[in-house]
Structure formats: C-alpha cells, structure tokens
Amino acid sequence: MVILALCCKPSKGEEIKAIANTGKIKVHKYNCIQIEELTYIKPERLLDAYWIRSGNTLEAIKLLIEQRFGLLADISSRVHAIGGEVKRAEINDNILSIIIELPKDERSILNMSLKLATGVKSVEFNK
Ligand SMILES: [Zn+2]
Questions:
Q1: Spacing, Cα 5 to ligand 1 middle (Å)
Q2: Where in the sequence is the domain holding 44, given as residue range(s)?
Q3: Ligand 1 centroid, distance to 74 Cα (angstroms)
Q4: Tell me, what's the pLDDT at 29?
Q5: Ligand 1: centre distance to CA 119 (Å)
Q6: For burial by CB atoms within 10 Å, which of 51, 67, 93, 118 has the most?
Q7: pLDDT tens digit string along 53-94?
Q8: Number of folded domains in the chain?
C-alpha cells in the first residue's frame, strides 16, 4: 500500500522519497525531516520514488533483480497490491528479469514498491 505522508504532504511533480514499512510505503518530500533522519538511522528503508505521468494507459517496466528464494512471489504480490500485473518473468544466470505493467494513475508511484525487493539491478521504463 502506498500512502502520501501527512507530515509534508507531497504533491504531484515534487521531488519525493519513500520510506518502507512492513506492508506499507510512505511517500515524503525529498527534504522532509523524516527522510533526513532515516538517512542516518536506517538508510536501507529509504526508497527512490517517482511520480507516474498521468494518463489512462498502462506503463510497462522492466526490472533486473538478483534472484533469491521467494522473490518473484514477493514482487508479484507488491505489483498486484498497486493494481499492476506481471507480464513476463524469466531467470538467467541468477538474475530475474521481469516485465510488469502498472496502471498509469497520477497517485501511483512506480518504482518504490519494487525497490523493496533488495538487489534491484536496473529499472527500465518502456513506452
Ligand atoms: Zn514527510
């Protein structure tokens, strides 16, 4: 679940960062005090986040991630939770290559949910 933080109320187009909690991702302005604090205390919970351009079609993303047990199931459930779908997944040389589609919704944030899966090698946006 993705939530916009109440402390700094980020709005569309502003530079943002996200904080991972169990089952929840909170989006803050990049310069929110909570982001700054976490940078020192628990940087591993900080995620890059981006706004999706608005529209009504789907956005395709390709991810390359170091394979680990349960990774695909983990990503699938995160993708489903934000209304997306896993279109293709394959493993080569211990790297999971996965193509997902997410709804293009101005309040959806692409990337942060996926960064939760540790070991993301690259993220590509196909348009
Ligand atoms: Zn904040």
A1: 5
A2: 2-48
A3: 26
A4: 92
A5: 26
A6: 51
A7: 545 455 666 777 778 888 888 888 877 777 788 888 888 888
A8: 2
Give the Cα separation of 106 and 103 in Å (integer).
9
- Tally of CB atoms within 10 A around 29: 19
CA 1 to ligand 1 center in whole angstroms: 17
Q: Determine the distance separating the centroid of ligand 1 and the alpha carbon of 51, expressed in angstroms.
A: 16
Q: 6 C-alpha vs ligand 1 centroid, how far in Å?
A: 7
Q: Measure CA 40 to chain center.
A: 21
User: Which percentage of the chain shows pLDDT scores above 90?
Assistant: 10
Residue 100 lies in a domain: yes
CA–centroid distance, 26 to ligand 1, in Å, is 8
At which residue do the structure tokens 């170091």 appear? 66
Contact 11, 5 (CB under 8 A): no
pTM: 0.48
Q: What is the mean pLDDT of the chain?
A: 75
Question: Can you give the CATH number for the domain in which 86 is found?
Answer: 3.30.70.260
What is the token pair recorded at 22? 């169990």
